[in-house]
Amino acid sequence: MENYSKLRFRDLKVGDRFDLGTHALSLEEMLAFASKYDPQPFHLDDESARANPLFERTSASGWLSIMLLQKLIGDFWKATQVQGLAGAGVDRIEWAAPTYADEPLQCTMLLEMVRASASKPQLGLMTMCVTLTKEHQQLATLLRITGVFKND
User: Fold this and answer.
1) Mean pLDDT over residues 77-101, rounded?
2) What Rg value do the Cα atoms of the chain yield, rounded?
3) How far apart are CA 141 and CA 128, in angstroms?
4) Do residues 118 and 147 lie in contact, with contact meaning Cβ atoms separated by under 8 Å?
5) Of 102, 101, 99, which Cα lies nearest the Cα of 138?
């Protein structure tokens, strides 16, 4: 990943794309999360997953993939001079394909809207479309969120 340590809000523009790296979820973290927060049978064991026509084996909870995206977004902005202040909303969540243990997932963030607040120009608004893609660019998870940032 490139060095973005000097990146500021004023440097950002619509169309900027950032590679947030390749990540994989372990079976242990998938099972721990599903057991506690999303105990659907296809998130807990292979046999139940195969009984469902949508899954090949135990799949990660979509909510776990969203949490992974949120962590990667936060880690990225922490490595810059861009200061996040608050979330302003989730526009879209899409779980396009199942995610399986140890599967490499490429994370990319595209800026779809970047502007100063009309009523509070010291604040900036930014809409980010963040995706996890599997092998052959197959979309697994999409998260489109808007955040409030310090406009410097």
Assistant:
1) 96
2) 17
3) 14
4) no
5) 99
